[in-house]
Automatic annotation (TrEMBL):
Residues 16-29 have a biased composition (Basic and acidic residues). The keyword Transmembrane applies. The keyword Nucleus does not apply. It comes from the Bacteria. This is Calcineurin-like phosphoesterase family protein. The chain crosses the membrane at residues 43-66, 375-393, 405-426, 438-461, 473-499. Residues 1-33 are annotated as: Disordered.
Length: 578
């Protein structure tokens, strides 16, 4: 193919303020802001658990039928260029951001400020912002994007400043729950190409950006770990024609599959295939892989490559104390027939640190019942039904027809309890390796609830309430026994999660159930004109929970400011790549 067919580098369209940014709000009322600030997602809420499970199942079963990437062959195929006025570039990376307002806006506010002073380093606002996936939770709907993602970023940077920063976005699994429809409408537009004060640059759900001094930024869309589609590979084939042995590549991917490959040996295959078949033949070097999906900061280093997870943009904190100290990418037990040679990577830094992460885990006892009242109500209801079934058998009462109709047979309740606990330890949709510890912990958890139900039944039968005429015992159980046993059983679940987390089981649920908003992070990167890349991993120990209208009325100033100033710091000293 001749050079005439190589896509031309396209300038980024200018960003224009939307109608909502034309006037500044006079209060924090949603009608003034144009969106509703949302509370953090209660991840253990029963209906949310069910709906998320259904979405995950549908994505697994019908993802290929909903895959819109094949249709993107008709979209633009430009290669973009980003260079600052001094010949270098400031670049930000943030991921997993569309959750509760306080955490999401705290990070967005820092990203939008004209300059940050962090541990003595003066870091100006980036000219390019990369969103690394999961821009919204729990699902990709129009309302969720408006309230949890676009709205907070609109409030942080209402109008584009003179340097006109640009935004590129990689879709994560939550962005894919609607087949990528909302994501494409928000970030891949043919008109009104702006996202708050950032111009939107990409023409597909993946992108290639030429950076200063031979650096390139490539953003992949692997549709929740599936094969890379043919239009995407064809697009990057054309991009690869511009790469040379002197090129250095930053690869932004939706998930840190180098970490997940320990339990999912095939998780890294798509990235390895892309590097092996698209980039390696050009002689270019992939110096940095960056991802979100796990909501913390962690950096692994190998012979000539850095692997960074930075998913601290707003979603609940994910622990760091269970991260492997050393990993292999690609793993030796991958089934790929032509995998790249295995390289070892060592864990060099993490945020929060190991001890703080472990201490966070102990907060499950206080946070679980109060962050997830629906979950507490659910297990309280199940325990009440189990107690009534046990009480009926223990007291050897057949009861009236109405009582039998409202009672659940004991055998059924016992089976439901044990199976629910076993599947909670390792849901069928979770994939990966199922070890003996999953079964042991799961069944042990179920037996603990059965024992609690037996103790609760004994205590209930000691009270005179059970001897009242029917249906008063059932009413009393719902009003008196249900709330108490719900709180007690939630502590049993909390204890199980803490113990299971120590064995690497239900680690996500241990922290999702707490909804920890603190310990956020993002990356600010600087590419100098001479090609030196410096990474500043910025950490925020405490997010703000109280906001006030900004006294600065200039168009690009943030609408809201924290009452107590945010104090970012570096998660580790700056990292330099050449």
């Amino acid at each position: 193919m001749s050079d005439d067919h190589v896509p031309e580098q396209q300038p980024i369209p200018e960003a224009h303020p939307g109608e909502r940014a034309a006037r500044r709000p006079r209060s924090s009322d949603p009608l003034e802001l144009g969106f509703t600030p949302r509370k953090p997602v209660p991840w253990l809420a029963p209906f949310l658990l069910i709906s998320t499970g259904i979405r995950t199942l549908l994505a697994m079963l019908f993802g290929a039928y909903l895959d819109k990437r094949e249709l993107q062959n008709a979209f633009g195929d430009g290669i973009f260029r980003q260079v600052g006025p001094d010949g270098g570039l400031w670049l930000d990376y943030v991921a997993d951001l569309g959750d509760g307002f306080d955490a999401t806006y705290s990070v967005a506010y820092l990203l939008a400020q004209p300059e940050l002073t962090v541990d003595g380093h003066r870091l100006p606002r980036a000219q390019t912002l990369v969103m690394g996936g999961d821009q919204v939770y729990p699902s990709a709907s129009y309302e969720a994007y408006e309230d949890r993602c676009k709205g907070p970023y609109q409030a942080a940077l209402p109008v584009s400043p003179p340097e006109r920063p640009t935004l590129f976005a990689v879709p994560g699994n939550h962005d894919w729950y609607d087949g990528l429809t909302a994501f494409l409408r928000l970030f891949v537009r043919s008109r009104d190409r702006h996202f708050a004060g950032w111009g939107t640059g990409q023409s597909r759900s993946y992108f290639a950006v030429e950076l200063p001094a031979g650096w390139w930024l490539l953003g992949l869309d692997d549709q929740s770990g599936s094969y890379l589609d043919d239009p995407q590979l064809t697009y990057f084939d054309e991009v690869a024609r511009k790469l040379t042995p002197r090129s250095r590549v930053i690869l932004a991917v939706p998930a840190p599959t180098w970490v997940k490959a320990a339990d999912h040996p095939t998780a890294y295959d798509s990235i390895d295939y892309f590097i092996r078949t698209i980039i390696a033949p050009t002689g270019a070097q992939v110096r940095l892989l960056v991802s979100g999906d796990l909501h913390h900061y962690a950096r692994y280093t190998g012979p000539d490559r850095q692997l960074i997870t930075c998913g601290g943009g707003g979603a609940y904190l994910y622990p760091t104390h269970k991260l492997p100290e050393r990993l292999e990418a690609p793993p030796r037990d991958t089934l790929a027939r032509r995998a790249s040679p295995t390289r070892e990577y060592d864990l060099m830094a993490r945020y929060p640190d190991k001890d703080r992460s472990r201490r966070y885990g102990w907060g499950i006892f206080a946070r679980l019942p109060f962050r997830n009242p629906g979950f507490t109500t659910l297990i309280g209801t199940l325990h009440t039904l189990l107690m009534l079934a046990m009480a009926g058998v223990t007291a050897n009462r057949v009861g009236t027809t109405e009582q039998r109709l409202l009672s659940v047979p004991l055998v059924i309740m016992l089976v439901v309890t044990l199976l629910s606990a076993a599947f909670f330890a390792k849901p069928p949709s979770a994939g990966g390796k199922r070890h003996a510890r999953h079964w042991i912990l799961g069944v042990g958890h179920g037996l603990a609830h059965v024992a609690l139900a037996a103790a609760g039944t004994w205590a209930w039968l000691e009270l005179p309430l059970y001897d009242w005429p029917w249906p008063l015992p059932a009413v009393a159980a719902a009003v008196v026994y249900g709330p108490v046993i719900g709180l007690v059983s939630s502590q049993v679940v909390a204890l199980y999660l803490l113990v299971a987390g120590a064995f690497g089981v239900n680690v996500n649920e241990l922290f999702a159930g707490q909804g920890i908003e603190d310990s956020k992070s993002f990356l600010r990167m600087r590419i100098d004109p001479d090609g030196t890349l410096t990474l500043y991993p910025i950490a925020l120990d405490k997010v703000s929970h109280t906001w006030q209208l900004n006294q600065d009325q200039s168009p690009s100033a943030s609408w809201l400011t924290p009452r107590t100033p945010l104090t970012p710091h570096l998660a580790e000293p700056p990292i330099t790549l050449t």
